[in-house]
Design a protein that fits this description.
Blueprint (H helix, E strand, L loop, with lengths): L3 H5 L1 H20 L26 H12 L14 H7 L34 H9 L15 H4 L7 H10 L8 H11 L1 H6 L5 H12 L10 H11 L11 H5 L3
Helix pairs in contact: 3-11
Length: 250
């Protein structure tokens, strides 16, 4: 059959295009009916879930990360290839993005991937880097973000933000039953931070305890953004897991 037949007959082209799309869709969708889950069940030694939702301060930091468009130049998804693992670390798991709305996988890297940036640099380094990137990375083309250190963090609506995320499946708690469930799933220390009724208190406490921006008298947007960056990739201890454990979920 000559290709010209399809090029000159729009009806036939549409029919065969739909057939091709249907076959491709079935190839992608059908395997999902034969697996139990697409998210890895990663647990700590005590049996609690390793991956948790963001704390109120981290969530506000993530909001600022999104607001400033950081995802345009930085991805948060390490592909399962040798060169990526050598540079960034263990490839990303689906479990690590299960509470992201929206996810930050990205498709372009002007800057390095940030999936495992947590703990790689000090808080002071992050502050200097965000205020003036060239001060720590001379060849950087990243713009300056000095206002993060100047702006006080607005967390007046943090409870409303957490309630909105709860509606799309993030296990923040409002009731005693939900809190008890989080204690069982994540442990009491984490469950306390996921309590919406104590969101303001938890945010202030975390910011003051860590003082990531170096300004103890204020809670700035820098506090929140650095808190978010410093937790990325730190929830799972890959050394405590067998590599084959994760391959089964791929």
């Amino acid at each position: 059959m000559k290709h010209e037949i399809f090029e000159t007959n729009i009806g036939l082209l549409i029919i065969f295009t739909m057939i091709a799309i249907s076959i491709g869709g079935l190839v992608e969708i059908t395997p999902l009916f034969y697996i139990n889950d697409t998210v890895e069940d990663v647990r700590r030694a005590d049996g609690t879930q390793a991956v948790r939702p963001y704390t109120p301060l981290e969530q506000r930091g993530r909001d600022i990360y999104t607001r400033e468009g950081c995802y345009n130049c930085h991805s948060q998804m390490i592909r399962p290839f040798r060169d990526e693992a050598l540079r960034y670390g263990h490839y990303s798991l689906a479990a690590e993005s299960q509470y992201d709305h929206p996810f930050q996988w990205g498709s372009k890297r002007t800057g390095p991937d940030l999936a495992r940036v947590g703990g790689k640099y000090s808080d002071t380094w992050h502050v200097k880097h965000l205020v003036r990137p060239k001060s720590v990375v001379p060849e950087s083309i990243m713009p300056n973000y000095p206002w993060l250190l100047e702006n006080d963090l607005d967390y007046s609506d943090i409870q409303a933000r957490m309630e909105a995320l709860k509606k799309v499946g993030v296990p923040y708690s409002l009731t005693q039953e939900e809190y008890d469930s989080n204690v069982k799933q994540f442990g009491k220390a984490v469950a306390d931070k996921l309590d919406i009724t104590r969101a303001d208190e938890n945010l202030v406490s975390e910011a003051q305890d860590n003082n990531r921006d170096g300004i103890p008298s204020r809670i700035t947007e820098m506090d929140a953004l650095v808190a978010y960056l410093q937790m990325l990739g730190t929830l799972i201890d890959f050394k405590a897991h067998d590599e084959h454990e994760f391959i089964k979920a791929r």
